[in-house]
Amino acid sequence: MNSLQERVKHLLATRGLTQAEATRRGGFKNLAFINDIVRGHKADVRGANLDKLAQALGTTEDFLLGRTAEADPRPVNQTSGSGADLVPNISFPAEQPPLPQLGGPRNVPVLGTAYGGDDGDFRFNGNTDDYVPRPRSLEGKDKVYSIYVRGQSMEPKYEEGESIYVDPVRPPQIGDYVIVELLAEEDGEPGAGFLKRLVKRTPTRIVVSQFNPAKEIEFERDRVKALHRVIPYSELLGV
């Protein structure tokens, strides 16, 4: 195993972890962090992210960096004594109520994407990268899928790496956040995809907006392959 990609894939397999499980264990805000390593888009990890990656995969930083072939961390020696004579020098804040979590069976597919370059946020690559929970509000909606957000064009509403749920059946309304997928290129490459907000729809044009940089973008309708509605978080929670 000569690369970070190979070592992470090995650990995921031997630990019996999915990418999503490892991402949660590491507390990564960028939900595509481990996926980018597995797909070879991120070959070097340092600092706090390296520590979190080691914790998530139950290994050491030295193994991830290729400094040792031993993947399992050494056990920490326990000191004798009850510790009753120790004086605490830190205090912990009162627990805050946890944010609502999405539960349910993990059977909503995360469709694979690649960075879209200058002409798009992403491109679908035809793969299923992972599965995310199906909350009760999505029971019976078999066409729903998820993707990981690419780029910063919709921050702070949607941050890079965040997973979003998409409903390809319910028609989007003006003001909804949407996935716009263009038709395939002449060379057969998948068309560019965009996460934007729907501003206007006419018989010939679709107008969307983004935050960073703030601007509107127009698409000719005959170039648009799909226009799918992003499901709001409150709707996922059944609120």
Write a brief structural summary.
The protein has 6 helices and 9 strands, in the order αααααβββββββββα.
CATH class of the largest domain: Mainly Beta
State Rg: 22 Å
**Percent of residues in beta strands?**
25-35%
Q: Distance N terminus to C terminus?
A: 47 Å
Helical residue percent? 10-25%
Task: Show unreliable segments.
Answer: 78-84, 89-99
Q: How would you sum up the global shape?
A: elongated
* Strand elements, count: 9
Domain unit count:
2
Write out the CATH superfamily name of the largest domain.
Umud Fragment, subunit A
- CATH topology of the largest domain: the name is Umud Fragment, subunit A
Descriptive tags:
two-stranded antiparallel sheet; 239 residues; 19% helix; 434 Repressor (Amino-terminal Domain); single chain; Umud Fragment, subunit A; 9 strands; seven-stranded antiparallel sheet
Descriptive notes:
The chain is α+β, with helices and mostly antiparallel strands and 239 residues long. The protein has 2 domains: 4-64, Orthogonal Bundle (434 Repressor (Amino-terminal Domain)), CATH 1.10.260.40; 106-236, Umud Fragment, subunit A (Ribbon), CATH 2.10.109.10. Helix content is 19%, strand content 28%. It contains 6 helices and 9 strands; from the N terminus they run H-H-H-H-H-E-E-E-E-E-E-E-E-E-H. Helix 2 packs across helix 4. Mean pLDDT is 83; it is low at 78-84 and 89-99.
